[in-house]
Specification:
Helices cover 44% and strands 9% of the residues. It is an alpha/beta fold. It has a five-stranded mixed beta sheet with strand order 1-2-3-4-5, with helices on both faces. 29% of the residues are buried.
Length: 187
Amino acid sequence: MAFANRILKVDSNFGSIILVPCALGGTMITDWSSFNSTLRQRLVQRTNEAVRFGGKLRAILWYQGESETRHIHDATYTFPRESKRFLSYLYKELNDPDDVPFIQVALASGPGEKEILEKVRAAQFAMEEVITVDAMGLPLGLAGLHLTTPAQVRLGNMMADAFLESRNTRFRSKSFRIENENNQMKR
């Protein structure tokens, strides 16, 4: 909601915003990237349903990767390879919308060791043609694993700012990253 509210605050003429939730906690990127992935198919189906009833796909918001921080092999090899595969399948299944930015969150935490978390984050920042919003440094809850509610609101605002900035550039030809500390764009 913070994402939608921020956009409407900045651009009151934007129109209605429909959020299509497809999240499923505890999943790995391979759950989304396999050829016949039920999760990705459901994501595409829900998106197409929203479009069928008059919506327009404007952005894809993605927060995934904590499960890959448990094992170094997943973080180093599986996550980077399968993230690219997921994006490739997803955009093809959505009929290759060049003007739709993929906005992902670079993780702030994970259940594994810090060095494994850094491998996943490095893979996220290395992805081409995506917008990466950095959640590192945002406050974590008591277990140190998930963002606090105020941090989630801040992250939603950061993702909205990234989306609004992406409207000023042809998305698939450029990528940039939003830093948490100063919230300034770096290209």
